[in-house]
Design goal:
With 220 residues, the protein is of the alpha/beta class. It has nine helices and six strands; from the N terminus they run ααβαβαβααβαβαβα. The protein has a single domain, classed as Alpha/Beta hydrolase fold, catalytic domain (Rossmann fold). The strands form two sheets. The protein has a four-stranded parallel sheet, sandwiched between helices. Strands 3-4 form a two-stranded antiparallel sheet. α2 crosses α3 and α4 runs antiparallel to α5. It starts with a helix and ends with a helix.
Length: 220
């Protein structure tokens, strides 16, 4: 973690397609298609990878919005303001302050737990993916486009936190609707009262157990 923070600028100007290509390369080196699990932009990448048949199944947790998702709640705008307030951040990495993290990730936690998670987990991250996602519906070839109509992909589980400020329920429920043209399994689970930190906060085991139960039901 310390090394990542020290060399955060190495990720500057990396976009969705850069990370996607890197993950595809890793997956092609495996003996069999993996189960994909990702959070936030990692969740979007799970959807993108699964849509192109690069996984046996996937779980997208609080996934960033994909092309076609229209709702943009005010809390989401405020959570991403530290990136969008400066257009030059498209080509930079950005770190959240403790207070910014508390709103975007830790709003359903005590302030002490939020600050502890901020100290433990935050790293500088590239701003470019946020700009790409924000412009997705205005770009014909957006990297945030997902093959939601693929009938042959593996099963997908979308997970949302009921109090998530960064990816509110409106975004995830709209994402689910994008899959209505595919007969492939697409399920949705909500964790009421949980925020964007639900994979790392003190309630993470409940999320993990839900994921394992769903994977078992899908025979994955």
């Amino acid at each position: 973690m310390a090394e990542t923070r020290e060399h955060g600028d190495d990720m500057a100007d990396r976009g969705i397609d850069d990370v996607f290509a890197h993950l595809v390369k890793l997956i092609k080196g495996l003996d069999q298609p993996p189960v994909l699990i990702g959070h936030s932009f990692g969740g979007m990448l799970v959807e993108k990878l699964l849509g192109e048949n690069h996984g046996a199944g996937g779980i997208a947790i609080d996934a960033a919005q994909i092309k076609g998702v229209l709702p943009l709640p005010l809390s989401s705008l405020r959570a991403t303001l530290p990136v969008f307030k400066n257009p030059a951040n498209r080509h930079r990495v950005v770190s959240l302050t403790a207070d910014q993290f508390a709103f975007a990730f830790g709003n359903a936690l005590t302030r002490d737990e939020s600050h502890q998670l901020h100290d433990a987990w935050t790293i500088p991250s590239p701003g470019r993916p946020l700009f790409e996602a924000a412009a997705a519906n205005f770009s014909l070839h957006s990297p945030a486009k997902v093959a939601t109509d693929n009938p042959d992909r593996g099963p997908l589980l979308l997970i949302m936190g009921g109090e998530d400020h960064t990816v509110p329920e409106a975004i995830t429920t709209s994402t689910l609707k994008q899959y209505r043209g595919s007969p492939a399994v697409t399920d949705l689970v909500e964790f009421a009262g949980r925020g964007h930190s639900l994979t790392v906060d003190s309630g993470w085991r409940l999320v993990a157990e839900s994921c394992l139960s769903w994977l078992d039901a899908q025979e994955l």
